[in-house]
Design goal:
With about 280 residues, this protein is mainly alpha-helical. It has helices spanning about 1-50, 55-60, 65-95, 105-115, 120-130, 135-140, 150-175, 180-185, 190-200, 205-220, 225-230, 240-245, 250-280. It folds into two domains: about 1-50; about 55-280, Orthogonal Bundle (MetI-like fold). The chain is about 80% helix and about 0% strand. α2 (about 55-60) packs across α13 (about 250-280), α4 (about 105-115) crosses α7 and α8 (about 180-185) runs antiparallel to α9 (about 190-200). It is globular, with a radius of gyration of 26 Å.
């Protein structure tokens, strides 16, 4: 009887030891994976800051090509975001609150630019709005040219960035409990008034989060812009295009613009995190 008890106690000790060893091994593996991933992400970003001095960074920011690209990018990304919000908010609300034939097709087409290669988006826009495009040839008859202009930059940004807002806005509207909207309607409020005074305020944090992501995507757009708008300094050369161009000349200008985009991207992530936490 005593020997049986000792054997059971020994087995229990071995099981506990094996469990601890397995847990320690799993913790070590997770630590290695996390460390490897963090190094893979942070080393390239840190290298940007290590390869340029503060003096060279601020000197590059004063270069005309950098200033023009920075101003144009901020301007076009802001205009694009406003356009997406104005047109995307009603569309998102309709898709969130209305069932109609072909809704799945509309949702698919809305999300298509997310998976569409940027170069394909650019050539598609060119075939539609270029001087010999499906729509562009009629506009050209009235002296209206879109391709290779600042307007082309904005259209390219709207095309590739709009799904980020529309998807987020649709999810935010779907998360609003309809009981609040129904209560407002029983008090005599119109559908538009309910949208502006009830639904939008409740979904506000999600809408802001989507707008921030849209701005960031528009700011970083490259492929569709260079195909549809070209790469002309002061007119269509945004920061990503300027990085591509200056790499062939002054690498410090490219690094400076890259650092600016990294800072903006980091600020965007912080802003989205802050807005999301406030909603929670």
């Amino acid at each position: 009887m005593v020997s049986i008890r000792y054997r059971k106690a020994g087995n229990a000790v071995r099981n506990v030891s094996w469990t601890k060893a397995r847990g320690a091994g799993l913790t070590l593996l997770l630590g290695i994976l996390l460390s490897s991933f963090l190094l893979f992400v942070t080393v390239p970003i840190a290298s940007l800051f290590l390869r340029i001095t503060p003096e060279a960074f601020f000197r590059s920011l004063a270069e005309p090509v950098v200033v023009d690209a920075l101003v144009l990018s901020l301007l076009t990304a802001t205009v694009s975001t406003v356009i997406v919000i104005l047109f995307g908010t009603p569309l998102s609300y309709i898709n969130a609150r209305t069932e109609y034939r072909g809704k799945d097709i509309v949702d698919t087409l809305t999300d298509l630019p997310i998976v569409l290669p940027p170069a394909v988006a650019g050539i598609a826009l060119l075939m539609a709005f270029g001087r010999r495009g499906v729509v562009g040839e009629y506009l050209d008859a009235f002296g209206i040219q879109i391709a290779f202009t600042t307007l082309a930059v904005i259209l390219a940004q709207v095309f590739v960035a709009s799904p980020f807002y529309i998807r987020q806005a649709r999810a935010s509207f779907e998360a609003v409990d309809r009981i609040y909207e129904d209560a407002a309607r029983t008090l005599g409020a119109s559908r538009l008034r309910v949208l502006l005074r009830v639904t939008v305020p409740i979904a506000w944090t999600g809408l802001v989060s989507g707008a921030i992501l849209t701005f960031a995507r528009a700011l970083g757009e490259f492929g569709a812009t260079i195909m549809f708008a070209g790469n002309f300094q002061g007119r269509t050369q945004t920061m990503p295009l300027a990085i591509y161009t200056t790499m062939q000349g002054d690498i410090y200008d490219a690094i400076s613009l890259s650092i600016v985009l990294v800072i903006i991207s980091f600020a965007v992530i912080l802003a989205v995190t802050f807005v999301t936490r406030r909603r929670i």
